[in-house]
Amino acid sequence: MEEAPSMNRPTLKAPVFDEVCETTGVTLTRFMNEVAILNPEIAEITTLFGAIDTACKAISNLVKRSQLPSSETLGYQGNVNVQGEDQKKLDVITNDLLKRALRFTGRLGILASEEEDEPVDLIGNAVTDSEEIVIDEGEKYVAVFDPLDGSSNVDAGIPTGTIIGIYEHDDCCEIDYDCVDEEDCTEQEAQCLANTLQPGTNLVASAYCLYSSSTFLVLTLGNGVYVFTLDETIGEFVLSKPNIKIPEDCKIYSFNEANLEKWDEPMQKVVKRWREGTGKSGERFSSRYIGSMVGDVHRTLLYGGVFGYPADTKNTNGKLRLLYEGAPMSFIMEQAGGLSTTGKRRVMECVPEYVHQRIPLVMGSKNAVQEVIDEYAESDSAY
Ligand SMILES: O=P(O)(O)OC[C@H]1O[C@](O)(COP(=O)(O)O)[C@@H](O)[C@@H]1O
């Protein structure tokens, strides 16, 4: 897999709110307005976050109401998505909801989603059936998203989430002519693909929304990680934790341990040492695993720990998707001071070869993830 050089992007100026007196009244809208004032060059992104704000509130409501007897959103849609997964009704509904919210900002050139077979080119197809979408001349972006991560858990009321990554759209990005020749795709389609298959180092923003005891929207614009909590009384996301940092040390790991024996050796060795308390920290780790990436990553960010879905003899590339799960969550983890690796590579530097590509993933507290990286470096593991 190709590795991408790091992008030298100017660091954004982040609005500063001190912990105690200022945060109580800082809504996401106000936060984004302050970001736009401090960084006029990315003012357009704040419009996208307006759409994300609305869509996540609507999804939060849908998820909460989905358990009610009157709800028609439980169960399966009857279709199978491009990855062979049975689509839940909520997968389809939340996908449509987010697609529409983002499209009508007029700022989006392309979107790619777990529930869409191919990237959707909004520039090439500006007119869709009855709804004409006007794409502004201004800055355009590419959005990649997993509309309802962990949806297999939704019927049991287990936390689920939405994951979003935002890239700049480059009208004159280099296209892969092989794709044009061999796969008979048009130049426009090749350009659409090239704009979609960008490495995490190109991300300009990423966010996840966790639908759980509360609804949390966690985001980075490349200068720290900010946690907003939905205040249902005013219907606004309110800044609850500015500029969070993940603890460098930890004693919690979060993996589907049922796969442990199928993992490759370095991963097995490290987790067995953590279980016995014979790892670098000498701490005996405890295990926590929800089986919903957004829930497991949110806990890991706040309490410290290591979350991952390593490669194994069944899922030789792991289970999680690089473009709309791995990279956006790695951007947030790194911005909070953590690390994210495949074991051998920094996830953010991996260039996706196709939209639904899977990648082995281990992310979390710096010193523990470094232990995994060191173990892979020592081993000449095939993975
Ligand atoms: O059930 P497993 O194999 O442990 O996999 C759980 C992982 O799969 C996922 O549910 C995959 O996500 P999707 O629901 O978006 O396909 C992750 O949220 C979670 O971390």
Automatic annotation (TrEMBL):
Its cofactor is Mg(2+). InterPro entries: FBPase_C_dom, FBPase_class-1, FBPase_N, FBPtase, Fructose_bisphosphatase_AS. Residues 246-374 form the Fructose-1-6-bisphosphatase class 1 C-terminal domain. Keywords: Carbohydrate metabolism, Hydrolase, Magnesium, Metal-binding. One of its GO terms (molecular function) is metal ion binding. Transmembrane segments: none annotated. It comes from the Eukaryota. Pathway: Carbohydrate biosynthesis. Residues 27-241 form the Fructose-1-6-bisphosphatase class I N-terminal domain. Its EC number is 3.1.3.11. GO terms for biological process: fructose 1,6-bisphosphate metabolic process; fructose 6-phosphate metabolic process; fructose metabolic process; gluconeogenesis; sucrose biosynthetic process. Pfam families: FBPase (PF00316), FBPase_C (PF18913). GO terms for cellular component: cytosol. Coiled coil: none annotated. It catalyses: beta-D-fructose 1,6-bisphosphate + H2O = beta-D-fructose 6-phosphate + phosphate. Homotetramer. Belongs to the FBPase class 1 family. This is fructose-bisphosphatase. It comes from Cylindrotheca closterium.
